[in-house]
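Hi support team,

I submitted a single chain yesterday and got back a structure, but I'm not sure I'm reading the token output correctly. Could someone confirm the output below corresponds to the sequence I sent? I've pasted both exactly as they appear in my results page.

Thanks,
R.
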Amino acid sequence: MKNIAISRRAFNSVALLAAAGLGAPSVWSQGKLEKTKVSIAVGGKAAFYYLPLTISEQLGYFKAEGLDVEISDFAGGSRALQALVGGSADVVSGAYEHTINMQSKNQYIESFVLMGRAPQIAMGVSTKAMPGYRDVADLRGKKIGVSAPGSSTNMVANLVLSRAGLKPSDVSFVGVGTAAGALTALRSGQIDAMSNTDPVMTMLEQKGEVKIISDTRTLKGTQEVFGGPMPAACFYAHAEFVQKNPNTCQALANAIVHGLKWLQTAGPSDIIKTVPESYLLGDRALYLASFNKVREAISLDGILPEEGTRTALKALASFDPSVKADKIVLSKTYTNDFARRAKERFKA
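Hi R., thanks for writing in. Yes, this is the structure output for that exact sequence:
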């Protein structure tokens, strides 16, 4: 009887473990997470630029991977990067080009899953402040709103200015965030032009408040501005963190790719039901119009194209003298190992 009791107890334990494995397949199959509590910094979470992060959070995909994520929202990507450098964040949901910028400063950070395959940033001039606008040269001496100085919205503005022969010092950049504050800054005349993400830019455009002069919200527009594919939002961390926490990074990549897979078939009503009400900025119809405009810019599978890394380096080196193209080792700015495994698992 004793042996039967032991074997029954053993059987029950195995059955419970098997059930747990079914409930959390990623944790079960990829080994123990080195870190279950992960702090993530993001700059402007309400923007469509970071929609995959919000979807994965709201639908519980991080929890399904055994992760307890704490997301801190900052005014712009450069602030989120500062949180990583300062040690208050483990991972950043931010622009891929920051990995290149940081390597030029001898700091190695690595992207490990892609969320956006186009920057989704548009630049426009205020029709009220600059009714007679003719070309980019007219921006000399003007105030340009960006999410935060040093962020990717600033980078796109710098690129547009440089092609017209203007330097960043020829204008004044003003940090306005990526939500209601950005709308207020333009409407109240605090800025003359703005480089920002959606839904903000579509809302201003549809009401005739800005004239768009550069647009990377579509793959075609991105090709025209950058001359190639330009990777955008991704998860990045110190290379050392990625190396020491492979199972944790895999779980993070899994959650994002799961969200990307969901987004491939999600309808407008699904998006409205999933994102926080405050993200709609008081106008559901315009929010959905914005989503339709940027939908193709969202990554399908989390994999960063090698050609895109070259596009990003060329763009940065064209206006930032501190980025020396011949000194940057692009293979150290990203890895697709985690995204490939996640893609295979979710058939993304």
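A quick pointer for reading it: The longest strand covers residues 37-43. Let us know if anything else looks off.

Best,
Support desk
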